[in-house]
Amino acid sequence: MTESFRFQKVLTDVKTGVYVRNYRITNEELGMDCRWFIEKRRLEGGVSDGVDIVTVDNGALSFTIVPTRGMGIWKGEFKGLQLGWKSPVENLVHPHYINLETRGGMGWLYGFNEWIVRCGLESFGPPGVDIITDEEGNKIEVPLTLHGRIANIPADTVKVRVASGYTLELEVEGTVYERTLFGPSFKLTNLTSTSLNSNTVRLTDVIENLKSTIGEMQVLYHCNYGVPFLEEGARVVAPFKTVAPRDAPSVERIDEFDVYGPPESGFVDQVYFCELLGDEDGRTCVALIDRNEEKAVSMSFSVEELPCFTIWKHTDSLENGYVTGLEHRPSFPNLKTFERKQGRVVKLGVGQKYEVHIEFSVHLGREEVDEVKDRIEGIAGRAKTKVYKKPNPKYSPT
Question: Mind listing the domains of the chain with CATH numbers?
Answer without folding.
Answer: 1-211 (2.70.98.10), 228-353+372-398 (2.70.98.10)
